[in-house]
Amino acid sequence: MMKKITILSFLFLFSFSTIFASNASAESVFKDIEETNPNYNDLKFLYDKDLLSDSVIGKAQTFGKDKKATRGDAVTIIGKTIGYKMYTTYTPYKDVDYGDVFSGQVLELSKLGIINGYSDGTFRPEGNLTRGHLALFIDRAFGKYLPEGNQEFKDVPKSNDAYKAVKKLVGAKITTGYGNGTFKPNEPLTKMHLHVFMARLVKYLEGQNVKVPLNDPLIEHTERYKPINDSKIKLGLSKSEVYELIKHRMTNKQTDIWYSTNVGRNGLDGKSTYEFLDGKLAGIINIFNWKSLVKSSNSISDIHEIYLKEYTEEFGKDYETHIEDDLITTFWDKSAYTIKLNTYRVDGEISVVSHISSEPKPF
User: Fold this and answer.
1) What angle do CA 185, 189, 191 make, to 5 degrees?
2) Alpha-carbon distance 356 to 133, whole Å?
3) Strand partners, 344
4) Most exposed: 53, 62, 229, 263, by fewest CB within 10 Å?
5) What is the residue-level pLDDT of the chain in tens, covering all 363 positions?
């Protein structure tokens, strides 16, 4: 079962890629895959585009090339290729919980009809991903860009749900069948197979001048992706008042002590938590996915400067900055509230978190 995470620990799992691009061309970005591997270039292609499945960790980590791919893996990589950002939420499936890192992708792809669950109310995210299932998922998500294809397979009759999808994938040269005239739609895929399929898909789409991620207007104009007007959210507002301002981006059910959303402050990639005390808004925590802005830096000062510029535009230049080892804190005192912007490194991982509250200066 996928590890469940809390709001604050989500930062460390928020992006499947917890690595920085290597400047050394001779160094593989995967611990268990050499550059001489025939599939390495396809994997590196996805790595460079931040399109790896969330369960794959690169650079000095293992890819898990021989492990079975799961339905959860497919949801994550397909969702990212479409343009959906990672966030957590509640879903209609009883085995995909709020804490599952791919739960937001499951919800969004379910709404689009790209994936569906089983009659018992489960999605089975840890279930094996078969060749037929992946063909169906890809066709539902990207079929309008793929050729019809004319290759027939004796084990994929017209009565098979994946019949047309398989023909399209073969027509686009994303996959082929076997020498005996079969496709083996029920054969489980490995993580390597899944990522090679997706790399070929992305290359085919780009060859058709289709930009990837798609960022389809369907996504950009849905309520789930409309911005939040942060300037209207003030400490002391009631739960109902806050709810009306953030409900289209909420990722948790209403609780007595907090709400959460799938976006950082000012629309930046991340997530926000709204904390309540005695029914009134007492604090706002913004956790940012800085890797969406910075691809190659491992300097906390460089990363901090990017968010400091954003916060200066909103809160002004009257601030103090304190630097101590691997922690940079910038503090604003606005009388009615205070703002802390922290960038820090723990166990090699860099985090960017801000906290708006009535707390005093921390240094």
Assistant:
1) 155
2) 45
3) 327, 351
4) 229
5) 444 434 333 333 333 333 333 333 446 778 788 889 999 999 989 988 888 886 554 444 567 778 899 999 999 999 999 988 777 777 888 898 877 888 888 988 988 889 988 888 899 999 999 999 999 999 999 999 999 999 999 999 999 999 999 999 999 999 989 999 999 999 999 999 999 999 999 999 999 999 998 876 455 545 556 789 999 999 999 999 998 898 877 766 557 788 888 788 988 888 899 999 999 999 999 999 887 777 666 789 999 999 999 999 999 999 999 999 999 999 999 999 999 999 999 988 899 999 999 999 888
Q: Comparing C-alpha atoms, which of 85, 110, 88, 83 is closest to residue 218?
A: 83
Between CA 185 and CA 193, with CA 188 as vertex, the angle to 5 degrees is: 100
CA–CA dist 340, 54 (Å, integer) = 30
Q: What is the rounded distance in angstroms from the CA atom of residue 199 to the CA atom of residue 237?
A: 47
CA distance 115 to 113: 5
Which is it for strands 327-333 and 320-324: parallel, antiparallel or unpaired?
antiparallel
What is the bridge-based pairing of β-strands 270-277 and 320-324?
Answer: unpaired
CA distance 69 to 56: 10
* C-alpha span between 234 and 171 (Å, rounded): 55
Token duo for residue 80: 């990212």
Closest CA to 200 of 56, 77, 55: 77
Closest residue by Cα to residue 349 from 19, 4, 8: 19
Q: Are 278 and 271 in contact (CB under 8 A)?
A: no
Q: How far is CA 17 from the centre of its chain?
A: 10
Q: Look up tokens 């966030």; give the residue.
A: 87
Is the CB of residue 251 less than 8 Å from the CB of residue 259? no
Q: Is the distance from CB of 359 to CB of 329 less than 8 angstroms?
A: no
